[in-house]
Amino acid sequence: MLPKPLQRRQWAAGMSDGDAANERTRLLVNPVSNTPNIPTAHSDDYVNPYANPVPKKTDEQSALNRILQETAANVIDVGALDSHNLEQHEYMDRSKAYAKRIEVIGVQIPDHPPCLLKDIPAPERVLAGEGLPQQDREMVTDMMNSAVTALSEIQVEHKEDLVVPFLS
Amino acid sequence: MERNLEKTMDNVTNVEGVIGCILADRQGLCLGAKGSASGQSAGLIAAIADEVAKLEPESNAPIIALESDNRQCIIQRQGPIVGAIYKAISP
């Protein structure tokens, strides 16, 4: 939107040309061609909305980029310091070097005890599989029942005399 | 004395496919082991039964089945005893 004083001037210029002034008439008269402004005004009108914002946008973009660069220059990104990709052999070299250092110092790294259970690659296959067969369940339950009974029946059996003749 | 306990374990070990069994008390003390079961695993078995029972405290004692490629270990606790049966499974 044009500022108001300009609009008024435009209206005056339009009147002097003898054309009906409207919001589409040009603000400044083309110095090269003195032809009536209406057609060029129309074509300009068509171009302007697109032509004008583009440089504006790049200005904004470059300003933003500048701010970004300035900020990046002032920030130490610790995470990105060591971000270059390590090759496989680099890993090996480093692990060897570290192992040597540890050997030199003589530090004992505690070994993790092997786990009783371990992960399996596709748990859903096992989880969706059939449960324990009825036969096995009965077997273990029967064993436990008879074991509980047997345990409750445990008692000391008298086999030989507790008091034995000594030096008879 | 513990004759019945021994008999119970013998009966189970004689079942086809069973390669061993073990009985332990709730603290993990081995009461007896037959077949390929080692008395040293009594503590582990009691601990596993204990931990698994915590998953659903409201339910009855669960039957736990541990499986490897060729063996299966079925664990259950009942009252004062934890028992485990080792089975060979065909792949």
From TrEMBL, chain A:
Location(s), subcellular: Late endosome membrane; Lysosome membrane
Highest taxon listed in the record's lineage: Eukaryota
Pfam families from the UniProt entry: LAMTOR
Region (Disordered): 1-22
UniProt entry keywords in alphabetical sequence: Endosome, Lipoprotein, Lysosome, Membrane, Myristate, Palmitate
UniProt-listed InterPro entries: LAMTOR1/MEH1
Topology with respect to the bilayer: Lipid-anchor
Assigned protein family: Belongs to the LAMTOR1 family.
Protein name: Ragulator complex protein LAMTOR1
Protein source organism: Neodiprion lecontei
Gene designation per UniProt: LOC107218871
TrEMBL record, chain B:
GO cellular component: lysosome; Ragulator complex
The keyword Cytoplasm is annotated on this UniProt entry: yes
Magnesium recorded as keyword: no
GO MF entry, a single one: guanyl-nucleotide exchange factor activity
Pfam families: LAMTOR5
Keywords: Cytoplasm, Lysosome
Biological-process GO terms, alphabetical: cellular response to amino acid stimulus; negative regulation of apoptotic process; positive regulation of TORC1 signaling
Subcellular location: Cytoplasm; Lysosome
Family that this chain belongs to: Belongs to the LAMTOR5 family.
Official protein name in the record: Late endosomal/lysosomal adaptor and MAPK and MTOR activator 5
Organism this protein belongs to: Neodiprion lecontei
Gene: LOC107227532
